[in-house]
Design goal:
The complex is a heterodimer.
Chain A: H1 3-24, H2 28-48, H3 52-77, H4 89-112, H5 120-124, H6 131-139, E1 142-144, E2 160-162, H7 168-189
Antiparallel strand pairs in A: 1-2
Helix pairs in contact in A: 1-2, 2-3
Chain B: H1 2-23, H2 31-74, H3 91-101, H4 112-131, H5 147-155, H6 158-168, H7 172-203, H8 208-213, H9 228-244, H10 269-293, H11 307-311, H12 313-340, H13 346-377, H14 384-405, H15 428-434
Helix pairs in contact in B: 1-2, 1-12, 2-10, 2-12, 3-10, 4-5, 4-6, 4-10, 6-7, 7-9, 7-13, 9-10, 9-13, 10-12
Classes of the chains: A mainly alpha, B mainly alpha.
Amino acid sequence: MNPKDALFVIVASWTGLSAIAVVVSQNIVRSAAWLLFSLAGTAGIYFLLGADFVGATQLIVYVGGVLVLVIFGVMLTAQGPFISLKTSTGDWGIAGLVGLIFLGVLSSSILFASWPVASDARMKDAAYSKSSVALGQAFLGIKEVSGPGNVTSFPSNAPRTRLPMGYLLPFELVSVHLLVVLIGAAYLARAKRRLRKPR
Amino acid sequence: MFVLNLLSNYVGIRTALASVALIAPNVGDKDFERLKLRIILTVVAVIAAVVLITFMLMSAIFFVWLERKVSARIQDRLGPTRVGGKFGWLQTLADGLKLLVKEDIIPTVADPVLFRLGPYIALVGAYLAFIALPFGNRVVAFDMNIAVFYMLAVMSTEVFGVILGGYASGSKWSLFGGMREAAQVVSYEVPRAISVLVPVIVAGSMSLSVAARAQSGPFWNWYIFHDPFTFLAFWTFFTCGTASCKRAPFDLAEAESELVAGFHTEYSGFRWLIFFMAEYGSMFAISGIAILLFLGGWNTGLLPFELSQQFGIVGNIVNVIVFILKGWFLVFVMIWVRWTLPRLRIDQVMMTCLRYLLPISCFLLLGVSCWQLALTRLGWLDNVRYLLAGGSVLLVLLFLVKALTSASAANPTQLMPGPWQLDRAAVPDVSQSAGPS
């Protein structure tokens, strides 16, 4: 087993164990802390695979943003000093059923999908890990065109064509959607002021 | 000691690069060769990690001493003078020893797991940032092409240590401190990231090494002088960086006049120490980003060539020393600011961010984008850098001349002017020996 595989096993089991701890933990803040470790472990897997940009984004979006929100929520809802959650047996059953179904979907898709193997030289090329460059160019509509059904490997001298639209427009649309959500949240959270009636 | 450490770091990274270069073109297909290279790579990685954490903790020791000394001089005191002979060099070691033998207290109402976990999360967040921080040309543990993004992402996890520590202490003061820290850091992250984008647009890369390499040569090549927008972006970034390190005037999380000690009220001994190691580590990391993106990185700014390309490893060592000295200077500025400015109120902190820093940084981002576009048409705009660099140097020189020529205000043999001067007889000794003219 080479060091990369060993590291993957360590990081992946760390992520999985933290994810289990999120579910099992009774204290809500503790489970939020375990969620932090699980998400950071996912980011670690991305780093391990050479996708630095995705890993850093995972950190800044999930670890930085969502977990602060979780902790805010926890702090604002907690009545006592340390609240604990008690899961009823029925909830355990339903959650376990849903989890098992999801596990089945995932493992069947892993087992039955055909996985094209990228060329060996490409995998070992350290310069190819410039994920941000490819991503940024794809935003502007410059994509490497891949062959049909061949997802992960590109022809070595594929022509770079400029497609009419990149990912920039959908990305901007999604951010406008976020803006709508923000305005709605600000409207809901704002203290209601009664309009003064004209005499 | 630092030089030795960095030398081994440099050698280690060169070896790592060489071994990677050996692996990549499929030279060593034999299993034995591969195994050997893997072992070398692992050892080198461990060496780099150990060297970086040593550097971080050693500079924290230095910064604690510096903080004591600078604060003392600003408050007209002497600070530590005895431990370790002159200047109290070893004061921090004495402090560390004291903290190590202190009783380790966990409050009975605290959540013991999270209480123990908090400081380590903060320390790991600060330490991970150092992995992508280039100390010189190719003197970096892992040269990412998105280094600045990675560093900001990792350093934003540091806040969790503070929040968890504040929450788990089971004390209202700690909880207030943690909540304030959360609100403050989450707000200041936004203008900090936008200010970082300004030099990133100029450099055309998020790699700190690329940005620093582009600033080699004389100091007017530094990005801070590139155009008016980057010049202002340095100040917004440094302000936000100070705030995200929870340094005064933004140290609301530990405001000792309001919250006892804020998030670390219940901490004592070693865990308290770790919180402060993390704080000083992230101060150096933020200063490092500021230097690499604005202040020329490891370049001296005086020589027209890149040292490491001219003199090889000797030039590289000089580069690393230059970088560390620049970093220490920025940390000194943070300490200087801390002991000069009064603490803001929490609403003032939020207002500074949301009403001033955020719009300013957005404007700077827009401005620098337009500037880069205009540069392609109007080449003479490139000369603005000489104006900015010359003006800044002139200002600094004027300040220095004024500071050196003006009489010292804190002359201990002379009474400061005040109402007591009316009654000279009451203080005969001092006024006579001083002889105020």
